Amino acid sequence: MKEYAYSTLDIAWIIDGMTLGCRRQYQVMETIWQKEKTYLELKYLESYRRFVLEIQYWMHYLHEKNLLDQEFTVIQQEIAALNGSLQAEDYQRDFLGLDLFFKQARIRILYGYRKDYVKIKLRTLLKEYGYKRRSQNLVLHIQDCMEVYGLEATLRGGVPCNIAEVGLDAMLTFRVIENM
């Protein structure tokens, strides 16, 4: 389950993409902390304050990412001169992991927008995350993510579907399964 946990960077990216007001952002953070504990990294279960501060840190980073990326080498040199260390991978992460789509879908459905679903074409989903084909491993990963985050995919009219069998141009509707 650890590989499927929400990081504070994931949550910051998702909340930032929802374009909420400041008050609503904090409400979403509090609700996630209260109701999604099974998905949180262990270090955040004890301290709501730490959880919120780290999300806020990443949200500020996302707003200033281009500027910080330009100055990253200088920052590394200055920290090294002070006998400090900086883990570059924390700041150079690729934000487009496929599992992030499913984390985002769950949070948007449960706590964000007023819709109880997320719609996307399968072709668009794969393209957005850099995939051209639907391999067996990719389908298994998608199915694992759907199971872990309690999502189901249906076609138009609420017809249940199997990701491995639907056409690439099928419009998928993801919903949270009620009895999780």
Note the topology.
Layout: H1 8-17, H2 22-35, H3 48-63, H4 65-70, H5 72-81, H6 98-112, E1 118-121, H7 122-128, H8 136-148, E2 151-155, E3 159-160, E4 171-176
Antiparallel strand pairs: 1-4, 2-3, 2-4
Helix pairs in contact: 1-3, 1-6, 2-3, 6-8
Describe the protein's architecture and organization.
With 180 residues, the protein is α+β, with helices and mostly antiparallel strands. Helices cover 51% and strands 9% of the residues. It contains eight helices and four strands; from the N terminus they run ααααααβααβββ. The radius of gyration is 18 Å and the shape is globular. 18% of the residues are buried.
Keywords, separated by commas or semicolons:
180 residues, globular, 9% strand
The computed structural class is alpha+beta
β-strand number: 4
Q: How would you describe the shape?
A: globular
Taking all residues together, what is the mean pLDDT?
Answer: 85
Our Rg estimate from Cα atoms comes to 18 Å
Helix content: 40-55%
Distance between the termini: 15 Å
Give a quick summary of the entry.
This protein has 180 residues and is of the alpha+beta class. It contains eight helices and four strands. α2 crosses α3 (48-63) and α6 packs parallel to α8 (136-148).
